């Protein structure tokens, strides 16, 4: 009968697909088991185990047929000495200590300078807003509010109730540095989140990696102050912190000004300091088009985690062995297929847990021009669920800055059928926009999105183990990332970076 051969073909194709999926599961399990093993001891930055992980990824890239290399970058690990950390306020000839709530710096510092209040510390020409337009910060210490104006208003030009890139502390400190500031003092913006300072026990406590920094002499220190100290510093303006913030938010006009007769002295030294190198593992699959192969689609993840703390291993299965295994699997898949028109760069960064040091270093020292990098797909924590019943949901973070990239991913998702959510782009409480390796690329003006399963039970805990991963979800994310990367590499109209009109 005519249908017989057709049925055989369908059965054969279905069987081949199942075999391929099973083979992929075997590879993923092997990668995940190794990355989370006792041998790699949690892959903490600057450890021999982290280097083993980077070299393992590099070897897998080479086995897949990529042109691969390890990019080393200088890192300084440090531990502050609380007894040697002092902030002094001098006014009217009298001095008293300030109580820094958080803060440290990778090198010893001694700074004394006048203080200027610079609002939210934002220069956002696209919103016709600049806190530095009427104040000279050069050679001064700047005091700024955290977050950004009007963040509780859905009508705010600053992405409504979500965040823009200007709200992040990294962007604020960089902006202060560009304006010549010597140091930054940060006040949690008083109208909205002051409870975090008043009751720090209410903030979720998670294990974290020991502090590290890229060895860069141009960096400036930043400290977060207590509410009482901020109120005292700003008292010379004749207004309270809440009144100053409300004035900015009401008119969207900066209230920046020098703080009359006010100097702050910062002295801090470290109890420990050690220098070393961390590694980014990078593999290139060159494109097929003679003209377009100079352009790049970047697929990224990070491999480091939290190591061993208090004799407990933090294996980091979801964070981020899942993304690391996915990038290696994508390299294997794409290397076997016909080459897309543009080149695809696979980058697995080190030292993400230390505030994205590897990806920040890469954007400052790119191996492929950022000017011709068309899109970034970042995979981090993609194999767990943030809430019960969300086994098919993946958050896309950063799409506010490229609706075209979001549309391209959604188009490819018609085949995969994941539940794609952009709700975290309108969220301010968790600061999600600033917490992963897509951030340095967004700050560089590139369309970049973070594929993210959400914060799950066991996040930054010893219980983040392979047995709790949702491997079918991981496979679906790999499929969507694969199809999106190929489509972006072949399109005649790559996505653009920009704020929605």
Description:
With about 500 residues, the protein is α/β, with parallel strands linked by helices. It has two domains: about 25-65 and about 285-490, Zn peptidases (Aminopeptidase, 3-Layer(aba) Sandwich); about 80-270, Glucose Oxidase, domain 1. It has helices at about 5-35, 50-65, 170-180, 195-200, 225-235, 240-250, 315-335, 355-365, 405-415, 440-445, 470-490; strands spanning about 65-90, 95-100, 100-105, 110-115, 125, 130, 140-145, 185, 210-215, 220-225, 255-285, 295-300, 310, 310-315, 345-350, 375-380, 395, 420, 450. α2 (about 50-65) runs parallel beside α7 and α7 crosses α11 (about 470-490). The chain starts with a helix and ends in an 11-residue tail after the last helix. One of its GO terms (molecular function) is metalloexopeptidase activity. InterPro entries: M28_fam, PA_dom_sf, PA_domain, Peptidase_M28. Pfam families: PA, Peptidase_M28.
Comma- or semicolon-separated keywords:
single chain, about 500 residues, alpha/beta, globular, Peptidase M28, PA_domain, PA_dom_sf, metalloexopeptidase activity, Peptidase_M28
Briefly characterize the structure.
The protein is of the alpha/beta class and 501 residues long. It has helices at 3-35, 48-64, 169-178, 195-198, 227-234, 241-251, 317-336, 357-364, 403-416, 439-443, 471-490, and strands spanning 67-91, 94-98, 100-104, 109-117, 123-124, 129-130, 141-145, 183-187, 212-214, 222-225, 257-285, 296-302, 308-309, 312-313, 343-349, 373-379, 393-397, 419-421, 448-452.
CATH level 4 superfamily of the largest domain: Zn peptidases
And the CATH topology of the largest domain?
A: Aminopeptidase
Number of domains: 2
Strand coverage percent: 25-35%
Low-confidence spans: 193-205
Spell out the helices and strands N to C: HHEEEEEEEHEHEEHHEEEEHEHEEHEHEH
Assign the CATH architecture of the largest domain. Answer: 3-Layer(aba) Sandwich
Give the tally of β-strands.
Answer: 19
Tally of contiguous helical segments: 11
Question: Nearest-angstrom radius of gyration?
Answer: 24 Å
Helical content (DSSP H or I, runs of 4+): 25-40%
Mean pLDDT: 91
C-alpha end-to-end distance: 59 Å
Class by SSE composition: alpha/beta
